[in-house]
Amino acid sequence: MTTLIEAHGIDVIPDGERHGHPRSLFAVWAAANISYLYIVLGGTLVLLGLNVWQALAVVAAGNAFWVLVGWLSVSGPASGTPSEVVTRALFGIRGNRVYNALEGWGVGVAYEAINLAAASLAALALAQACGLEATTAVKWATILGTALIAATISVSGHAMIVRLSGWFTAVLATGMVVLGYYVLRHAHWGYAPPRQAAPHGAALWAAAAVGLTIIASSPLSWGVGADFARYLPAGASKRAITGWTALGGLLPTALLAALGVLAGTVVDMTDPQASLRALLPGWFYPLFLLLIIAGSVTNNVLTAYSTGLALQAVGIPWKRPVTIIFDSTAAVAITAYALFVSDFIQALSDLLALTVTFLGPALAIYGVDIWLRRNRYDGRALHDETPGSQFWYWHGVSPAGAAAMIAGTAAAVMCVSTTVYCGPAAAALSGADLSALAGPALAAPVYYALASKRIGLTLACVHTPSELR
Predict the structure, then answer these.
(1) Which of 60, 263, 324, 364 could disulfide-pair with 440, CB 3.0 to 4.6 Å?
(2) CB neighbour list of residue 29: distance below 8 Å, 6 or more residues apart
(3) How big, in percent rounded to 5, are the helix, strand and coil portions of the chain?
């Protein structure tokens, strides 16, 4: 019987409650990613000095990471548990608590705050467009209203998210198609920045690398695919799970980022919310602002759901609805502070670039672990947190996972380039930000080298795990 609020948190989903088809994942991920923020990110590429075709190539390359997000999702049906628990196999019981506190919860709440800030700025613009005074009360009403709607759906749980995602996708996609029509009418496909402002040689590669990191930050922030796939039957097709998840994320993010690039050929994308008004008919601009607010809600639905699970995985003994309410409250507080930042676009770009330094290595380790284990995860064993259990490793920490994470993050930090910090490798390469590539490229082989033997023994002796301790 279906209840109003999902009963499960990070516990194992029983076989009798497994249902559905992988194609349902498309709408879940599409609804969450038909977001104005991707238009902003696409416009940022033009601000970096790239021409249309260079920017579109960066959009395609950065969104290729969605395939990795799809691959990580297959661990959900295999284990019956969310990503926040599967990662115990990577980092150990105690190590995973640290991982979820910093990356699962901390980064997730930061992204919730970004969405709330975008919604609030849109609401202020909407108030002005309707002839109302853009007061602090309007700003607070939008922040609290957006957070409340997203939290309510997230608290209701997985079944509600799946049920509403198709409607959200249809409405948001329709609105974005209309937006796309007006942008394409004005776009300059042959656009190139003025010769004196266009980067050349090493500077061009540096700009493209920074853009790649910004675009890649979107898929790299979604290493929680198992959260939304774990209700599928254990025998569900891995290819279908990977494909529908990847497509649901890649299609809207790539198209909207491309739309942002094309909009940047005719308007100033330093303030896209206001600048795009010049391309839109008067009747549609208020609807466009409502789309921004609605997209912020749908993105935060998935984000709040996963951050709630992350807080449980840290070891806090709260029910899932309580963790989601706590997360949403924290996001509201961060948003209220962040809205005093004068340059929202620059602050957003720096935050996304910095999160890539540890999100990239983490997802690479996760992907290698699934491959090494042949996607064989024992959900019950993953929930055994006692010393000496299969995933206790060394004092509760996996040496292989910790070493790979440290190595990958260090490599990424060396290669990151933002206005607040530029790594030595990036500085030597004229500011080229290769953190999205360097972190995973080192973390993956380090983890493989250190973990492959132990995992091989685990698979060989799966029925006698005590022999492996």
Answers:
(1) 364
(2) 228, 244, 245, 248, 249
(3) 70, 0, 25
As its CATH architecture, domain 20-346 has: Orthogonal Bundle (1.10)
Contact 306, 108 (CB under 8 A): yes
- The span from the first CA to the last CA of the chain, in angstroms, equals 41
Residue 115 amino acid letter? N
Rounded to a whole number of angstroms, the CA Rg of the chain reads: 22
Nearest-CA neighbor of 343 among 420, 427, 433, 431? 420
The single residue listed with the structure tokens 């969450």 is: 32
Find tokens 């607010």 and name the residue. 293
The whole-angstrom separation of Cα 309 and Cα 322 is 10
CB-count burial class (<10 Å; 0-12, 13-18, 19+) for 354:
buried
Q: Tell me which residue of 34, 41, 46 sits closest to 188, measured CA to CA.
A: 46
Name the nearest CA neighbour of 332 among 112, 177, 167: 112
Contact 52, 191 (CB under 8 A): yes
pLDDT in tens, 200-245: 888 889 889 989 998 998 999 999 999 999 999 999 999 999 999 9
| pLDDT tens-place string over residues 17-65 | 999 999 999 999 999 999 988 999 999 999 999 999 999 999 999 999 9
* Beta carbons within 8 Å of 345's beta carbon, 6+ residues apart: 40, 44, 47, 270, 271
Which sign, positive or negative, has the C-alpha torsion 435, 356, 224, 219?
negative
